[in-house]
Amino acid sequence: MKAIICRAASVSAVMAFLLPVTAAHAQLGDLLKRGENAGSSSGLGSLGGALSGQSVTSGSTGNVAGILEFCIKNNYLGGDGASSVKDKLLGKLSGGKTSSDAGYSDGAKGLLNGSDGKQLNLSGGGLKGEVTRQVCDKILAQGKSML
Fold first, then answer.
1. Cα separation of 17 and 94, whole Å?
2. SS3 letters for 109-132?
3. Which of 2, 12, 46, 65 has fewest C-beta within 10 Å?
């Protein structure tokens, strides 16, 4: 009899733990859908595409270098690997002059300029910060492929 009570209590505890997690996940999905439908380029919804598997790439070498600068500066990426890729991409810019490259300037502010002309604002924290970390990883992979 005690075993049955213990099992029931264990199952109840697990269910009580998982219920808020499931509800939060559903709310996040709804929030992202609403943001995407609103067409906001700066809200959390605009990052929903990154979570849904939509391709996240930059339209220029300068913007990739700038995004990497932003990601490193804001601790979304670390280590010498990201800095090395950023430095090599900067060397490919016109004489390494970042001040004359609008894409780099936007990227350093956290603005990802897509090849389709859309802009994605990566600055922010909380849940948006976690998605930004994923986008930074994808942009680092893109930067490596440009070398």
1. 55
2. CCEEECCCCCEEECCCCHHHHHHH
3. 2
